[in-house]
Amino acid sequence: MTDSPHRPPIPFEGIDDVLAVLRTGGHRVSTACRVVLESLFAADGPVSAQSIADGSHGGGQALELSSVYRNLERLEAHGIVKHVHLGHSPGLYLLVGSGQREFLACERCGRVTSLDPAELDPVRAEVQARFGFRARFDHFPITGLCAGCAASGA
After folding, report:
1. Deepest of 9, 80, 135, 137, by most Cβ within 10 A of its Cβ?
2. What is the C-alpha to C-alpha distance for residues 7 and 14, in angstroms, rounded to an integer?
């Protein structure tokens, strides 16, 4: 479904599975890499590199932002992490071990809804049928107003 230069996602259950994949591939797992992974596993959704560097998500240890980005890039190249753009903020990162996710983002309240790609297959099929365009929603979300914001009026 995605046209990415990165490897396909690697299924994993927990941090130990990810560490095993990296070590089996001959990669050294630094303290920074472990802290980045702990932060991603502790997060309840996509997180910014800055929040990981600040120690805001589970890792608890502050890191240099450049180190966080290096580790996120390496993890993304291995199909463990992906980044998404959910609005006008910097890219956010999430684990992909449980499979690909696509997103809806509210332009008013900022609420992000994570979906299994199959849930958007009817939308994709309609776009392709009407316009011949194969749509993807895994890197950029569908934006608009969530049900709550839409009900409260424009």
Report:
1. 80
2. 19
Phi, psi torsion values for 56, nearest 5 degrees: -75, -15
Q: Which residue from 72, 98, 93 is spatially nearest to 83, judged by alpha carbons?
A: 93
95: helix, strand or coil:
strand
Closest CA to 137 of 76, 85, 94, 73: 85
Q: Kindly report the CA angle at 94 between 125 and 70, in degrees rounded to 5?
A: 125
**C-alpha–C-alpha distance, residues 67 and 101, integer Å:** 26
Order of all β-strands in the sheet with 142-144: 112-115, 102-106, 142-144
d(CA 133, CA 99): 24
